[in-house]
Each structure stands twice: as structure tokens, then as C-alpha cells.
Amino acid sequence: MHLLLVLTFVLEVQSRIMNLNFTSDCTCHIELKSTNCTSSNYTQLPMYLPPFTEQLDLSFNLLSAIEPQAFQATRRLRILLLNNNAISKLANGAFSLLEGLLRLDLSRNRISTLSEGFSLGLGSLRELSLAENRLTVLDSSCFVHLDFLQRLNLSHNTIKTIKMRAFGSMSTLRQIQLDWNNITILKNGIFSMLRNLEVLNLRHNQINCLDVGVLSPLTSLAVLDLTNNNLSSIQFKTFLSLNTYSTHIMLQGNPWKCDCDLQRVFRKLSNVKRLFLDDYDNLTCLNLDEIHGYYTMGLDTELCVAEMVTVLVITITVVITVVAAIVMAEKKRKKKNKEKHWTEVSEYSCGSQD
Ligand SMILES: *[C@@H]1O[C@H](CO)[C@@H](O)[C@H](O)[C@H]1NC(C)=O
Ligand SMILES: *[C@@H]1O[C@H](CO)[C@@H](O)[C@H](O)[C@H]1NC(C)=O
Asked: Is residue 248 lining ligand 2, measured as CB closer than 6 Å?
């Protein structure tokens, strides 16, 4: 027993000096305050982790669940990497003791739901990645305790529904990656608290509709990426309501229904000084030019010609009708005068005959 204790002590001292293997599969670095347990086939958290650890790398293991208060031995953690495991269950309060945690990487796991308790105690967290998981719904309670989060990566999930106030408490959020999900509609109110959001990445979803007011709370938005969605039309007001200093908007890779209305919307948008349609020249239309399958919006300045022609035809028709009516009326008047004249003449001639 004593021998074992002494041995442990010696090992510990040695590792402090030489940064040797601390436990069997983890490497510790005392100056960096980091412990690296990556790629070690852990199915559970290692039994012993040095309490000085501020950076813990547990990526590429076989963890499947994180139990409540799992990290009570390492409460000083600032960075926790749990990416590339098989985590499907995050207990309520799994991270609740990590009050100084700044960065949590849970990407490439099997997380399909987030309970309210998941974010308990993560009031200092600045950066959270849940990319490449199996989330389908973002509930209004998912992120309630993340009061200081700045970057949220939700890319490559199967998110279809974002509930009202899902991002409700995240007024410090600056970037959201929501690319490669299954979002179809952006409803009013889902971004209502995100007044500091600078980057909203919605690439590769199936968005076909944006509620007119959905973007209006985003007063700091600098980049709105809607590339590769299912938009065929948009309303001018939707983007006009972006009350920002300057916003770059990406819209290519959508099946635009290029008609005069849409062209008018884009023309009006291009006159709004704070909005930049960066890829306007790359927008393609699905409805025109069946031979090539698409048509470029930027080159096509003639979408409203048909409408102009119609207006012109109607105007000309009206003018002709009016002119014709005047001419006819004039003719009728003249004819009447002539008839009168003839009557007078004939009367006169009759009279002269007499
Ligand atoms: C978000 O996660 C995806 C998928 O893992 C990754 O490719 C991307 O670089 C991340 N984005 C940011 C801004 O961290
Ligand atoms: C437009 O498309 C071209 C050719 O595919 C590409 O090189 C360019 O980067 C695109 N422009 C923008 C702003 O995405």
C-alpha cells in the first residue's frame, strides 16, 4: 500500500518535471495546464485527471454519455474538446461545475436533443460547437444558460425547426453557423434577441420563405449567407428592414423565378446603400431559357420589357380609341352641317324653282 502511494507520487513528480505520460493514455503538460487524452479508446471519462488542467482534449474516443457533474475533478477547465466521440446523451448539469469554461467542442457526436439542463453552469462559455450531430429541433430552452456565448456552430445537423426564442438569451452572440441543415422557413421572432449577431450562415438549407420582419432585430448583421437554398422570390421589405450599418448578402444557388417583380425588388435593393448583393451577377433563374436550364439575372435587363410592351400597347390602344372617337365625332358634326347646308340649298332651289 505504501509502496503504491510512493510510486504514484514519484510518477506524478516525474510527470510534472518531464511532461511524461500521466495516466496510461493521457499526456499532461503542466506549464500549458493541458491534458491530452485524444485517440485513446476511452468509453468513459478517465478515472484520474490532474486538477490543474485548463485544457482537456478527449477528442477521438468512444465516449457515449456525459453524466451529471462529470468534470468535478477538473473544475478549472477553460477548454474542453469532446469532438469525434459517440456521445448521444448529455445529462442535465453535465457541465454544471465548469463555471470558467470558455470553449466546448461537441462536434461529430450523436446528439439528437438538447435539454434545458445541458447548458446549466455554462455562463462563461464563449464558443460552442455542436456541428455534425443529429439535432432536428432547436427548442426555446436549448441555450438558456449561455449568457455570454459569442460563437455557435450548428452546421451539418438535420435542424428543421427553430422554435421561437430558441436563441432568446443570447444577446452577445456574434456568429451562428446553421449551414447544411433542413430549415425551410424563417419565422418572425426566431432571431429576436440577436442584436449583436454579425454573421448568419444559412447556406445549404431548403429555405423557401422569409417572414418580412424576421431580419429586423439583427442590427449588427454584416454577413447574411443564403447561398444554396430554395428561394424563388423575396420581398423588398424583408431586406430593407435590416437596419444595419452595412450588410453583405449572398443569394446564389437559389431557383429564382425571374420575372419583372423580382427584378424590380433587386433593382430597389441595389439602391439601398447599406446593402450589398455580393453575388448578384451569379444569380441564376430556373424559369427562363429552357435550353440552358438557367439564365443569369445580372445580364438580363429585359425582364420588364414584356410588361413595358403591354403597357405601351394599352396606351396606344387607348390613344387610338380616343382619337378615333374625336375624329368620328368631328365627322358626324361636319356631316350634320353639310346636310343642313344641303337642306338649305335644296330649300332654296325649290324656292327658286317656284
Ligand atoms: C463549423 O463546423 C463545421 C463542421 O464541423 C466546420 O467545417 C466549420 O469550419 C465550423 N465553422 C466555424 C466558423 O467554426
Ligand atoms: C461567381 O461565380 C464565379 C464562377 O463560378 C466565381 O468564380 C465567383 O467567385 C462567384 N462570385 C461570387 C461573388 O460568389
From this structure: no
Distance between Cα 100 and ligand 1 center (Å): 23
CB 154 near ligand 1, within 6 Å: no
Cα–Cα dist 343/349, whole Å: 10
Give me the residues paired with residue 175 across strands: 151, 199
Cα separations in angstroms, 137 against 163, 276, 279: 8, 31, 31
Write out the CATH class of domain 14-182: alpha beta
**Ligand 2: residue whose CA is nearest its atom 5:** 282
Task: Determine the Cα–Cα distance for residues 38 and 134; give it in Å rounded to an integer.
Answer: 23
The CA 176 to ligand 2 mean position distance, Å, reads: 23
Nearest of 171, 126, 172 to residue 153 by alpha carbon: 126
- Nearest ligand 2 atom, CA 281: 1
Angle, vertex CA 170, rays to CA 164 and CA 172, nearest 5: 145
Q: Where are the domains of the chain?
A: 14-182
Task: Per-residue pLDDT tens, the chain, 354 aa: give them.
Answer: 444 433 344 344 344 434 444 446 899 998 899 999 999 999 999 988 999 999 999 999 999 999 998 998 999 999 999 999 999 999 999 999 999 999 999 999 999 999 989 999 999 999 999 999 999 999 998 899 999 999 999 999 999 999 998 998 899 999 999 999 999 999 999 999 999 999 999 999 999 999 999 999 999 999 999 999 999 999 999 999 999 999 999 999 999 988 888 888 998 999 999 999 999 988 888 765 555 555 566 544 566 666 667 778 888 888 888 888 888 888 888 887 776 665 555 544 444 444
